Amino acid sequence: MADERTGLWLAGARGSVATTAVCGLLGLRAGLVPPTGCVTELLEADLPPWDSLVVGGHDVVCTPLAKRAEQLAKAGVVPSDLLGPIDGGLAEVEAEIRDAPTGPQGEAAARLVADLESFRARHCLARVVVVNVASTEPPEPPRPEHEDLAALERALAAGEAVLPPSSLTAYAAMRAGCSFVDFTPSTGAALPALDRLAHQVGVPYAGRDGKTGETLVRTVLAPMFTARALRVLSWSGTNLLGGGDGSTLEDPAHAASKLRTKASGLAALLGYPVVAPLHIDNVPDLGERKTAWDHVSFEGFLGARMSLQFTWTGLDSALAAPLVLDLARLVSSAHRAGRVGAQAELGFFFKDPLGSAEHGFADQARTLVDWAGGL
């Protein structure tokens, strides 16, 4: 695959995660940073090399990528001494970022399809992976059009607004023959009509909601309680975060999507329902830093009551960005190998893995290694 060029199209291309991913990729290409946090560096698989990835994208905001990189350097996410050497690369990516399509959804989808096809042709790309790293959306109420591809396309042609933005992006990606990854808890490709489209055009997709912090720890710890026959009585969590995520998730409607995906795997991991209150609070002065505190109450032999507490503090964009790059490489390889539809084996990366009910981290890791080795 070394002689093939792969496109990475970022929805939300000027956001913190996307900007960090771009800075990291440019640093990796130049040999200026090690691939710390890049899972694909541990896999024996035929994957696109870093220097074969070409980045473009779209966004609703206009802050230049270089300015966002400066802001992230001040926040401690991007090394400040990296900015000078990658300045030219940032300018090249900036030239490939388009305004997010607006207007009637059918027309917006057509413009995005045209942008993707032009991007692919302009750079002679073998494949393009579209990754959604835009802001979290509220949960989408079901509509009949979500179940039937023909009905969905009739509604789009009639100018109806039937899809949330993440799903419109997924639709346009597939119509352009591109694979799709939803790194957010938004609806994305998780609609029967879009699954049908993926199979119709022969593209893979994966998602959703990147697993980078508190939930990552939960998927490691919860199987421990089950394996040792200890009964969890409650598992409470509090998340404190600032930045764009903090302000977005301050809205209960948007937070509902995140809370659903964060809580979805706990009962599956334990094998029984458990009281698991979870709170997300916006603390603006934290900026890009996120802190999660969990309290686990559990019962042991003879009914002895005990507890576990842990605190996870991290820079979420620094945790997410290498996974975005990993997923671009893996999904591109899956596309090349003829894989179609939801790639359940990529559940390792997600809180709410599409196509899979497995949430245990160790099992997901083994599945990923076996799957990647077969690409």
Mean of all residue-level pLDDT scores:
93
What percentage of the residues does DSSP assign to strands (E)? 15-25%
Q: State the major sheet.
A: 7 strands, parallel
State the total count of DSSP E strands.
11
Q: In terms of per-residue confidence, which ranges show pLDDT below 50 for 5 or more consecutive residues?
A: none
Residue share in helix: 40-55%
- The number of helical elements comes to 13
SSE topology string: EHEHHEHEHHEHEHEHHHEEEHEH
What is the radius of gyration?
20 Å
Q: Ends: how far apart?
A: 11 Å
Topology of helices and strands:
Layout: E1 6-11, H1 16-29, E2 53-59, H2 65-74, H3 87-94, E3 97-99, H4 105-122, E4 127-132, H5 149-157, H6 165-175, E5 179-182, H7 192-201, E6 204-207, H8 214-227, E7 231-241, H9 243-249, H10 252-263, H11 266-270, E8 278-282, E9 289-299, E10 305-315, H12 316-336, E11 341-342, H13 361-373
Parallel strand pairs: 1-2, 1-4, 2-3, 4-5, 5-6, 6-11, 7-8
Antiparallel strand pairs: 7-9, 9-10
Describe this entry's structure for a reader.
This protein is α/β, with parallel strands linked by helices and 375 residues long. It has 13 helices and 11 strands. The chain has a 7-stranded parallel sheet, sandwiched between helices. Strands 8-7-9-10 form a 4-stranded mixed sheet. Helix 1 (16-29) packs across helix 12 (316-336). The longest helix is centred in the last third of the chain and has 21 residues, at 316-336. The N and C termini lie close together (11 Å). The mean pLDDT is 93.
